[in-house]
Amino acid sequence: MLFKDITIIDKDFKAVRHQYVRTEGAFITYIGEADPRTLPEAGEIEGEEVYDGKNKALVPGFYNVHCHVPMTMLRGYGEGLPLQRWLFEKIFPFEAKLTPQDIQNGTLLGALELMASGSASISDMYFSINEMAEALDRAGMKANICHGISSLDLGQDLSKLPGYQDTLRLARDERAGVYGGIKGSGEGSRIRADMGLHAEYTSTEGLVRQIANAAKEEGLSIHVHISETQTEHQECMERHEGRTPIRYMADCGVLDVPVQAAHCVYLSDEDVEIMKAHGAAAVHNPSSNLKLGSGIAPVRDYLKKGLKVAIGTDGASSNNNLNMMEEIHMAAMICRGVTKDANAVSASDILRMASLEGARVQGRRDCGRIEKSCRADLLVFDLDKPHLQPDFDTVANIVFAAQSSDIVLNMIDGRVVYRNGEFLTLDKERVIYDANASFQRILTEL
Ligand SMILES: [Zn+2]
């Protein structure tokens, strides 16, 4: 596709007007002011679609790096209960009834929402991850998927847990090129396996150490919940000789591989230093932390200290949507409000966190920015809207004024998956019907 005369958010997250951007296959092959069709080194491509960029902005696709996508099935279920009662009386009994087919149905429902609101990729923690991979592959999305492994049984052997076996199977499929990567190495695979460790409070130390070792052996990153609530942070210190969740995880070897640490609301100064030393990244989930009353992560401090920070929505039962536009808006607003500083974080910093930083956290080096030779994960925003005019500062308009409904095209790895309200990879009516059918069946079984 050739985007003609369009405003782009460039690799430095600045708006540049009147650009031509060409994609071929999965990649961006040209960016420039000149029409590549007139250049000898580029030229015409037969059958190429030319997309008129008038009143449009081309923005990098979003990387939503902490999610539980099948929980779309539980949206609005069990509202108003305190966390423990919500989990034990509502969520866990419902989840016990989910079949792999239900999980696919919930994943596809989430995929519709994610694609329409600008996500190119998610990092997801749930179960039945092989079925999730199939569903997200069908949608055309990218994903790093993990099974949130947990067990409080002393002497639990990791290799006997189905979630671990599913993880190995997904990693094998990735290496075999099942999801679009290079056969043999899996390089460039749209779907990737991560090792999942639910949290400090849901596993024994023995199991945490086995997970860390297995991740090292398999060459996998670890996705884990860290210091989400003050209670969790405090109780960890009581259980483990005053050690915070990050200190404890580092002692167990978890941080010896790349880590995506979700929430990180209560990191100590030492935690930040440990994470930096190991290259671990914090994933900011502002909506979920506010909705569940968990608190507000001091993101400006983290950024100032040089910690990597990306953004995620968390699951639909604690947000209650998977809309990265809302998360971007929220992250910018609360960071400035809490610090009482209108320059605490810039609009372009937030966009970078939502795309490039997320792609890096997922280990996808050629993704997350609009640059030649990078993968074409591109969103088109329609700027011809009253709330986006005048188009004086496009980056500020996108972060502070735009809505996800202004997204008129979502391209992932060069393939358009969503355009003008239509889904090109999934049958929206069918997906919504199937997800509701699963939900209703489970209600009758409870
Ligand atoms: Zn979570």
How would you sum up this structure, described in words?
The protein is an alpha/beta fold and 446 residues long. It has helices at residues 83-96, 100-116, 129-139, 162-175, 205-218, 230-239, 245-251, 269-278, 286-291, 299-304, 324-339, 347-361, 394-401, 428-445; strands spanning 2-9, 15-24, 27-32, 50-52, 56-60, 62-67, 119-126, 142-147, 191-193, 195-199, 222-226, 259-263, 281-284, 308-311, 378-382, 407-412, 415-419, 422-423. The protein folds into 2 domains: 2-60 and 376-423, Urease, subunit C, domain 1 (Roll); 62-361, TIM Barrel. The strands form 3 sheets. Strands 1, 2, 3, 4, 5, 15, 16, 17 and 18 form a 9-stranded mixed beta sheet that branches. Strands 10-11-12-13-14 form a 5-stranded parallel beta sheet. Strand 17 and strand 18 (422-423) form a beta hairpin. Helix 11 packs across helix 12 and helix 12 (347-361) packs across helix 13 (394-401). The N and C termini lie far apart (50 Å). Zinc ion (ZN) is lined by residues 66, 68, 225, 262, 314.
Count of folded domains: 2
CATH domain class name of the largest domain: Alpha Beta
CATH homologous superfamily label of the largest domain: Metal-dependent hydrolases
For the record, the CATH architecture of the largest domain stands as: Alpha-Beta Barrel
Mean pLDDT: 96
Query: What is the CATH topology classification name of the largest domain?
Result: TIM Barrel
